[in-house]
């Protein structure tokens, strides 16, 4: 990612990550990465989906609609 940021320096490119990238998604990320937060696979999957939905709706899609390039670490 660092090399890509360097290669695209000066371009209209937004770099982001998942899970995370928005205040809501960052809070979800904290839960997902907390070893004390025990959860089953379904709960974990829905949290990832919620983080992705918020990130896509509030960060990725608006930037793409404005013509900006978006590079997202770990986007599926």
UniProtKB/TrEMBL annotation:
Entry-linked InterPro entries: P-loop_NTPase, Thymidylate_kin-like_dom
Sorted UniProt keywords: Kinase, Transferase
EC assignment: 2.7.4.9
GO terms of molecular function: dTMP kinase activity
Group of enzyme by EC: transferase
Domain (Thymidylate kinase-like): residue spans on this chain: 8-76
Protein name: Thymidylate kinase
Source species: uncultured Rubrobacteraceae bacterium
């Amino acid at each position: 990612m660092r090399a890509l940021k360097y290669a695209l320096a000066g371009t209209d490119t937004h770099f982001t990550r998942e899970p995370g990238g928005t205040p809501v998604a960052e809070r979800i990320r904290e839960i997902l990465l907390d070893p004390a937060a025990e959860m089953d696979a379904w709960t974990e999957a829905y949290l990832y989906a919620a983080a992705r939905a918020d990130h896509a709706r509030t960060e990725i899609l608006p930037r793409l609609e404005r013509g900006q390039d978006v590079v997202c670490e770990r986007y599926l």
